[in-house]
């Protein structure tokens, strides 16, 4: 009975089980059918928003902007993005294999989405094994890198899948892989494999070893985590895992595997070292290019060659720095105190061989300090500190420090400078209390020959040569005199009164308080007499004079419509004053200062060549063929010499690899016909003014310059009220140079500080080096007469001539 009942129960359960099994099968069939229906439904939903692959944003070439001097010295580099797109044929086969092993081993088999890859990604999450590949195929990564953001949302991931399928349908595997290796970010600012090879190993792709290829292939997963610069241990583990995968996939032999995993990381980071640090010049070029082309120019890979040669720039910097320090010495300026009471030493920059140092110990005979290299140095009281023992505030301790402990304390950040090349002896030092600027341009075309914007760029980035508007004082007088001569009312020999003068309530005085009666115009300028200058300006007319000075390079709106203009009551930059003085030695023409001579692309092909207006375009154009022939000859000679490795090392060499990172033009510079610079004063006036400027040196306020032993230089000293500004303007047929000295916040410089004391010696030091080896010469009034056709080049004072100083680059 029991058995019969049991069989009956089993029979009754069978239909139920069959129904359950049928339901499960039906559910599976529904899911199987629903997935493709849902997939294609989603595809139809997203299709209108999917990108057009014809407009794919291919990787752009990006390399740092480099700034060079005229003699090819690298002085500045800007930008940190590296991207050097390559073709599929340029990618080494083993590098492709390394990426496949690291990222997507079934790349050439799947259709954009890999189920196996997704499975590996899930396994990685479970096992915490982050050395494996992720779930995204190479095609999916291309979709993300070129079309999508980095956000992690379901909608973005689905879009990535559909774009990957679209890419696979419309592009070949070779094309997809090329897009991938060119766009992928690999750390250290490097985008793409060619940039990574250069950045990490200073090599081209074909020079990479298997170990180096595997190292690069390990970076896409996490460029920061596997960066060999910051995480060498993790980078090495991942590199060796990839090398193992390459062996498993049959891409390398066991011997190649063993050799690669034993190889050191072998980093040889690409960091182009500057030949010379000339930041005022480099920053001026960078800023000018960014203004014209936008911020992207810093990653353009352009090589910019300036008009400035390194030897003249060095001479200018040394002359200015020495002059500013001499000012402190003259005034006995003593210790100004520590730069900081404490702080991180690495946050302080070097100022012209003035190294930051942190005081670690103070004794009765001096102090010990640590410098940024980690070395400990000794600074002795005698010879190292006692030069500065005079207090800036007299009255304290009799006006002098008497012990090292009164000057520095442990933890202070101070400045030190070595007393010898071996750096075994050191001296306490400090930046000068005063600032200055120097600018020199070529009068014929406005090319900047040297420019220094201050004591040190790290100390102050403000460029006083181009941005510092100050009262020019008496160096404006030659420009006023030129306007007076232009009226035809005066000649250099005309007599002008040096008697006292009263204009309303204003009673201007001569600097020495004396009045000498009538004197020739040329003598009034040589002695820098004030009252004759005022009388000349009044006779010339303020409107006429302001318009003339505007055409010579100053800004009319910064020139007061009062007779105080004759004494320098205006605002001008040193560069503007150099432009004005250039007209006095180039025959009366307004040149436009410029400092970028040419621009090359990364392949050293010329993409820009300056073509400035010339003071004598006829002269320049007549000699153009000879000039270009000479340049071409010099180019070939230098090119032949560069290929002789026994004489010249490659521009960039690392373990046998030559990367053309340096400026190596592919073709010689070619100059074109120049346009004529506008005339702003007559040739006769310019010649007469040049002669009068020479007289300032031979028998006037700048007689110190006779020490140069040259009869072909002229100039003018300048000092403003209360000696807040000291100037010197010096001229030669090949240069117009301006020197300014003063405090950034205008204040009296002290007793006996005049242009002839503070600025003239700086000009002399620079000019001595600038003209070294240059024969004595002077351009006479007739030198240009045969070449220039005056009727074609004269521009009346009412004509439109650029106002103020504008950098043409």
- Distance from first to last alpha carbon: 112 Å
- Strand percentage lies at 5-15%
Number of helices: 24
Give the overall pLDDT as a whole number: 85
The class by helix and strand makeup works out as alpha+beta
Shape: elongated
Overall radius of gyration: 37 Å
What can be said about this structure in brief?
By secondary structure, this protein is α+β, with helices and mostly antiparallel strands. It is built from 24 helices and 21 strands. The strands form six sheets. Strands 2-1-5-15-16 form a five-stranded mixed beta sheet, with helices on one face. A five-stranded antiparallel beta sheet has the order 8-7-6-9-10.
Please outline the helices and strands.
Elements: H1 2-46, E1 65-68, E2 74-78, E3 82-83, H2 93-103, H3 115-127, H4 138-147, H5 154-170, H6 173-183, E4 190-191, H7 193-201, H8 210-217, H9 232-248, H10 254-262, H11 279-293, E5 303-306, H12 310-330, E6 355-363, E7 366-371, E8 376-380, H13 381-384, E9 413-418, E10 426-429, E11 435-441, E12 448-452, H14 464-467, H15 477-486, E13 495-497, E14 518-520, H16 521-526, H17 530-540, H18 542-552, H19 574-585, E15 596-600, E16 606-609, H20 617-622, H21 624-643, E17 653-654, E18 657-658, H22 683-699, E19 714-719, E20 725-732, E21 735-742, H23 755-770, H24 790-793
Parallel strand pairs: 1-5, 3-4
Antiparallel strand pairs: 1-2, 5-15, 6-7, 6-9, 7-8, 9-10, 11-12, 11-21, 13-14, 15-16, 17-18, 19-20, 20-21
């Amino acid at each position: 009975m029991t058995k019969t009942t049991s069989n009956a129960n089993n029979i009754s359960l069978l239909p139920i089980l069959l129904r359950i099994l049928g339901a499960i099968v039906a559910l599976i069939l529904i899911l199987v059918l629903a997935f493709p229906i849902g997939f294609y439904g989603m595809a139809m939903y997203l299709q209108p928003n999917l990108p057009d692959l014809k407009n794919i944003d291919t990787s752009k070439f990006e390399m740092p902007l480099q700034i060079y001097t005229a003699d090819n010295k690298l002085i500045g580099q800007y930008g940190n993005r590296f991207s050097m797109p390559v073709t599929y044929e340029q990618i080494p086969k083993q590098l492709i294999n390394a990426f496949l092993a690291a990222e997507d081993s079934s790349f050439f088999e799947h259709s954009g989405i890999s189920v196996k890859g997704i499975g590996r990604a899930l396994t990685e999450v479970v096992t915490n094994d982050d050395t494996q590949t992720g779930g995204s195929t190479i095609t999916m990564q291309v979709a993300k890198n070129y079309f999508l953001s980095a956000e992690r949302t379901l909608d973005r991931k689905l879009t990535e899948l559909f774009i990957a399928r679209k890419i696979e349908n419309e592009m070949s595997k070779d094309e997809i892989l090329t897009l991938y290796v060119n766009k992928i970010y690999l750390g250290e600012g490097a985008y793409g494999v060619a940039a990574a090879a250069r950045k990490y190993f200073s090599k081209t792709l074909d020079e990479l070893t298997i170990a180096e290829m595997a190292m690069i292939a390990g970076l896409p997963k996490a460029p920061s985590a596997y960066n060999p610069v910051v995480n060498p241990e993790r980078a090495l583990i991942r590199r060796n895992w990839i090398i193992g995968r390459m062996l498993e996939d049959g891409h390398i032999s066991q011997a190649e595997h063993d050799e690669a995993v034993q190889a050191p990381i072998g980093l040889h980071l690409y960091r182009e070292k500057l030949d010379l640090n000339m930041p005022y010049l480099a920053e001026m070029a960078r800023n000018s290019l960014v203004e014209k082309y936008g911020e992207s120019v810093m990653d353009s890979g352009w090589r910019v060659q300036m008009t400035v040669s390194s030897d003249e720039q060095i001479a200018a910097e040394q002359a200015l720095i020495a002059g500013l320090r001499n000012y402190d010495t003259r005034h006995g300026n003593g210790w100004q105190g520590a730069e900081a009471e404490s702080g991180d030493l690495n946050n302080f920059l070097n100022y012209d061989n003035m190294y930051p140092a942190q005081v670690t110990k103070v004794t009765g005979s001096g102090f010990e300090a640590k410098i940024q290299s980690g070395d400990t140095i000794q600074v002795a009281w005698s010879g190292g500190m006692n030069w500065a023992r005079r207090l800036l505030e007299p009255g304290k301790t009799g006006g002098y420090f008497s012990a090292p402990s009164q000057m520095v304390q442990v933890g202070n950040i101070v400045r030190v400078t070595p007393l010898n090349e071996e750096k075994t002896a050191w001296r306490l030092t400090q930046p000068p209390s005063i600032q200055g600027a120097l600018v020199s341009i070529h009068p014929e075309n406005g090319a900047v020959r040297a420019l220094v914007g201050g004591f040190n760029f790290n100390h102050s980035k403000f460029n006083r040569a181009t941005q510092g508007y100050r009262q020019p004082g008496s160096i404006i007088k030659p420009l006023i005199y030129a306007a007076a001569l232009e009226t035809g009312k005066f000649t250099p020999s005309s007599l002008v009164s040096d008697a006292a003068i009263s204009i309303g309530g204003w009673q201007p005085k001569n600097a020495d308080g004396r009045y000498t009666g009538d004197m020739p115009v040329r003598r009034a300028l040589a002695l820098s007499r004030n009252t004759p200058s005022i009388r000349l300006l009044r006779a010339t007319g303020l409107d006429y004079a302001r318009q003339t000075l505007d055409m010579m390079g100053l800004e009319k709106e910064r020139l007061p419509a009062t007779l105080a203009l004759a004494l320098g009551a205006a605002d001008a930059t040193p560069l503007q004053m150099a432009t004005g003085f250039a007209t006095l030695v180039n025959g009366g023409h307004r040149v436009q200062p410029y400092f970028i001579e040419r621009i090359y692309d990364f392949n050293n092909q010329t993409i820009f060549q300056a073509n400035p207006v010339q003071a004598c375009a006829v002269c320049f154009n007549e000699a153009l063929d000879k000039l270009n022939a000479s340049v071409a000859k010099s180019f070939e000679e230098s090119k032949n010499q560069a290929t002789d490795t026994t004489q010249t090392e490659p521009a960039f060499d690392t373990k046998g690899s030559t990367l053309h990172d340096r400026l190596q033009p592919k073709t010689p510079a070619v100059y074109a016909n120049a346009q004529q610079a506008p005339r702003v004063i007559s040739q006769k006036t310019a010649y007469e003014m040049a002669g009068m400027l020479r007289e300032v040196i031979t028998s006037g306020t700048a007689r110190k310059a006779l020490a140069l032993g040259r009869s072909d230089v002229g100039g003018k000293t300048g000092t403003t009220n209360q000696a807040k500004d000291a100037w010197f303007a010096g001229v030669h047929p090949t240069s117009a140079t301006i020197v300014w000295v003063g405090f950034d916040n205008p204040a009296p410089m002290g007793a006996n500080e005049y242009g002839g004391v503070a600025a003239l010696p700086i000009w002399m030091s620079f000019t001595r080096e600038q003209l070294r080896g240059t024969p004595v010469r002077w351009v006479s009034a007739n030198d240009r007469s045969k070449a220039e056709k005056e009727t074609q080049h004269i521009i009346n004072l009412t004509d439109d001539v650029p106002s103020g100083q504008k950098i043409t680059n």
